[in-house]
Amino acid sequence: MSFLTIDQDRCKRDGICVAECPLGLIEIKGEDAFPSPIGPAQELCITCGHCVAVCPHGALSLTSMKSDNCAPFRNNMLPGPEQLELYLKSRRSIRVYKDKPVPRAELTQVIDWAGYAPSGHNAQPVHWLVIEDTAEVRRLTQMVADWMDFMLKDNPAMAKAYHMDLVKMAWERGQDRILRGAPHLIIAHAPKDYPPALPACTIAVTYLELAAYALGLGACWAGYFNAAATFFPPLISALDLPAGHGSFGSMMIGYPKFTYHRIPFRNTPRIMWR
Ligand SMILES: Cc1cc2nc3c(=O)[nH]c(=O)nc-3n(C[C@H](O)[C@H](O)[C@H](O)COP(=O)(O)O)c2cc1C
After folding, report:
1. pTM more than 0.85
2. How many Å from the N-terminal Cα to the C-terminal Cα in the chain?
């Protein structure tokens, strides 16, 4: 049986799947023919599911993606542009959290949504490490503070350029400007030797932040943490990622303590038109 199947009772032979396949792997061989995969289609298919998603008749399925199992969707189910504009512009990095853990089901849900981020060739290289245990988040924060100590001695100009002196002093006063007292930390990791790992993780973590906001959670990129997780051997060992993997994006997550009432300005876009 082919990895691509056509329900001949539903198919209208409109050629939409042929036009849509990003790799040109589907053809209709004659006037009375139904769509079929071209020769090497199975090896080349990236399982992006566009052929399944675009068919208005639910006629096309892949072995791993039956049309009837894919959630139905219509454009009129989407929020309008005004709502989306407000949603995108009102998202904020959350740095003050309630002292309340997030149930695992909610953390799983934001990660599930983040899985819909685009990735080159639909390779979906992102893996997730969730530091669910708040005490462990605090232990790892101490390791980032240790890394800052090391950096302030080893490369003071760079460390000061990133305000590590101030962040470290705050940490010693009991103020956490590293992970902001967040109850949880989510780390996107992927094989270090896979060049598209960085953009894939960056985009997935961006989706994660947007998903968190939509679900009433708050999140913030953990830039200091991720740098330490990339360069500081004790933290790299503590994370114990799969062999060959690196951390490409980390996010604090919890329930936001405050809400926002205004949208701050951003720079006017710098655009060149040609
Ligand atoms: C890659 C990256 C790393 C960041 N690292 C940190 C961080 O370590 N700590 C922090 O408080 N905010 C961090 N931020 C959040 C930015 O400061 C924030 O996005 C920016 O000030 C704009 O605010 P907004 O996200 O609320 O619009 C980071 C953002 C990005 C994109």
Report:
1. yes
2. 50
Instruction: Pinpoint the residues of the chain covered by CATH 3.30.70.20.
Output: 4-69
Q: Is 13 in the pocket of ligand 1 (CB under 6 A)?
A: no
pLDDT of residue 1: 60
Determine the atom of ligand 1 nearest the C-alpha atom of 180: 11
Alpha helices in the chain (DSSP H): 16-20, 41-44, 50-54, 81-90, 104-114, 134-154, 156-161, 164-172, 197-214, 223-231, 233-239
Q: How many angstroms is it from 131 CA to the middle of ligand 1?
A: 20
Residues 4-69, CATH architecture: 2-Layer Sandwich (3.30)
Domain formed by 85-254, architecture: 3-Layer(aba) Sandwich (3.40)
Beta pairing, strands 4-6 & 60-62: antiparallel
Domain with CATH 3.40.109.10 in the chain: 85-254
Atom of ligand 1 nearest to the CA of 266: 27
Give me the phi and psi of 248, to 5 degrees please.
-115, 5
For ligand 1, atom 20: residue with the closest CA: 93
Tell how far the Cα of 94 is from the centroid of ligand 1, in angstroms: 9
The residue ranges of the chain whose pLDDT is under 70 are 1
For residue 13, what pLDDT is reported? 97
Regarding the beta carbon of 248 and ligand 1, being less than 6 Å apart is answered no
The single-letter DSSP state of residue 269 is P
